[in-house]
Amino acid sequence: MKKSYLKYLSSLxxxxxxxxxxxxxLLNSHEIVFLRTFIGSIFLLCLFLLSKQxxxxxxxxxxxxxxxxxxxxTGISWLFLYQAYTEIGVSLATLACYCGPIIVILLSPxxxxxxLNIYKISGFIIVFTGMIFVNGSELSQTGxxxxxxxxxxxxxxxxxxxxxxxxxxTINGLEYSFIQLIxxxxxxxxxxxxxxxxxxxxxxxxxxPVLFLGVINTGIGCYLxxxxxxxxxxxxVAICGYLEPLxxxxxxxxxxxxxxxxxxxxxxxxxIGGAIISELSKYLKEKKFESEIEDSTQLSSNx
Length: 303
Description:
Belongs to the EamA transporter family. This protein is an all-alpha fold and 303 residues long. The chain contains 13 helices and no strands. Helix 4 packs antiparallel against helix 8 (146-166) and helix 4 crosses helix 9 (173-196). The protein is globular and about 50 Å long.
């Protein structure tokens, strides 16, 4: 379990540094996402071949379709997110994207037949308030900017990724991350080809940060993430997951000198705190269930 926690937290820190690494790549946002998914896919393909596992994903066609849909949603979300990095900076783009989990929670009664409780409703209100604090001054001055729209669309497509991923029951680990990333790459490649023509972006001045983003942040990051979450409690995964946006804010302040105003810092606390509160009901329910199992086990052993 300790090893799984270490792998999971390491993956979140890697993901949190994505915007920092991308800022050192002298390519447009679409080309960066293309190279990220391309290199990451090749890396995971090599890992999969070296592991000598058999491809089992397409035995259950329904799960395979959901997984591919999740990968496509991931690719589109990254296209919007990296464009938002360029337009409004890493800090604000990350905060906008991390409204995605709240969208999932609001849709969960319709899609997963889950009830909205006081934690989820309170979380939504707090996150919405946080978004007003973070973007209020920009909205009052310039209205809804293209960068903010990209950030919001990144959150929407992120929520689709989560919804499709939650419907996958029989695929996990390396096979899961490999298929999802390949699907992301294909949709990004199609988009880039239609928009700018089919070509491989030049790597002459960008080779190190591109390889770092593709191999370390994407390939190794996805492997650490998907190989660890199946070993950890779902509530813990959801709550600890907010280390990613926190680390992104921290890294962008240190390496990119991005500074949030006082009111934006309050908004950031609201967004992340509200999202954690909305996940708290799952965590408490999970802990209660574990406690009941321990009590029943202890009772039967005493008998």
